[in-house]
Amino acid sequence: MSFEYRIPSIGVEEEYQLVDPQTGMLSPKGRAVLKLARKATVANIQHELHLEPFVMASPVLDDSAQVRACVLSTRGTLMQAAAANGVAIVAAGTNPCKLPEHVFITPSRRYELMAEQYQALARELVIFGCHVHVDMPDRDLGVRIMNHARPWLPVLQAMSANSPFWHGQDTGYESYRRELWVRWPMSGIPDWFENLDAYQRCVRLLVRAGAIDDESKIYWDIRLPAKTDTIEFRIFDIQTEVEDCVALVAITRALVMRCEKAVLCNEPAPRIRPELLKSAVWQAARYGLNLRLMDPFHCKQTSAMKHVADLMRYIEEPLRVLGDDETVAEYWQRLRATGTPSMRQRKILESAGRKEGKLVRELIRKTAGEAC
């Protein structure tokens, strides 16, 4: 019997670095750039915890063409505003240069309280991710979709790895951003929840215990945001190249659609222990697609590329329904040919004679893409 897919709308958030285009180091000129950029874009652009990065939140989008246009337009607007202030933007999960002696906390009550509470964790949280939202008006369905999507988190982490450097050093990780972020309270892999009631009981316990003020302080790799009717994937490093971002958004939407089909067709969700998934995601952040990944479905090591191929087969049908199959096929071919964005960063640095400034200048060019 054929299944009729619901076609959900989508949204994307990207966190950009602001850098000195000569040295590659982070720049605190964020307020001047933001004031200029806000006049010329439909995306919502804000500061995050620090003044060095920006976060852009797209409007509601319907397809990959709109994602591409929005990301290109927003990056182009920020590039122009940054250039007018003698700086540039970069899309990469971490900055490859040494961090400045002081990072500047955004002057707002919310962020000042976070800095006071979390101290060194807040000062060191100079990282840059990509969050994908998929329309989810039914929160109980959203919880059940989370259960089905959890085992795919390691391969999503591996594919999107784009942060090999930290404080002027090669960390040996494909996604060191992950290791910095996972120290943050309420980050990481969500538990398996029987239904929405079980999810809400968990939230109430966390609030009662003082672990969080409210549901918005939950930052799991997949979550149901408190203020929007979406399911949000937060596991991705930001992608330097626009086409990689477009493909990951398409893959995420297709995965949600395929998991929704699984729920509605009464397919059981794998009840995989969080300790196993935590280890699998760590392995994905450490090695990316270089070696092997842990397959949570079968509790064994497998070829990283085979695990990606398994994901592609799982979402093949909704990709075809969406018309995103060619976009994702090209992305899959690019991964096989050139590796993850982290692998590409290392190759650029090697060809640049290990000079971080040259790497950042190349990342600036790739961040702009067609927006140049």
Number of domains: 1
Query: Helix count, per DSSP?
Result: 15
Averaged pLDDT: 91
Biggest sheet descriptor: 7 strands, antiparallel
In the predicted model, the low-confidence regions spanning at least 5 consecutive residues are none
Shape: globular
Supply the CATH architecture.
2-Layer Sandwich
SSE succession: EHEEHEHHEHHEEHEHEEEHHEEHHHHH
Please give a quick description of this structure.
By secondary structure, this protein is an alpha+beta fold. The chain has a single domain, classed as Creatine Kinase, Chain A, domain 2.
Write the layout of secondary structure elements.
Elements: E1 10-19, H1 30-37, E2 44-47, E3 53-57, H2 64-83, E4 88-90, H3 109-118, H4 120-123, E5 129-135, H5 139-149, H6 153-160, E6 165-166, E7 169-170, H7 176-181, E8 187-188, H8 196-208, E9 219-220, E10 222-223, E11 230-237, H9 242-264, H10 274-287, E12 292-295, E13 300-303, H11 304-314, H12 316-322, H13 325-338, H14 341-351, H15 356-368
Helix pairs in contact: 1-2, 2-9, 5-9, 6-10, 6-11, 9-12
Task: Walk me through the structure.
The structure is a single chain. The chain has 372 residues and is α+β, with helices and mostly antiparallel strands. It has one domain (10-371): Creatine Kinase, Chain A, domain 2 (2-Layer Sandwich), CATH 3.30.590. It is built from 15 helices and 13 strands. The protein has helices at residues 30-37, 64-83, 109-118, 120-123, 139-149, 153-160, 176-181, 196-208, 242-264, 274-287, 304-314, 316-322, 325-338, 341-351, 356-368; strands at residues 10-19, 44-47, 53-57, 88-90, 129-135, 165-166, 169-170, 187-188, 219-220, 222-223, 230-237, 292-295, 300-303. The strands form 4 sheets. Strands 1, 2, 3, 4, 5, 10 and 11 form a 7-stranded antiparallel beta sheet that branches. Strand 10 (222-223) and strand 11 form a beta hairpin.
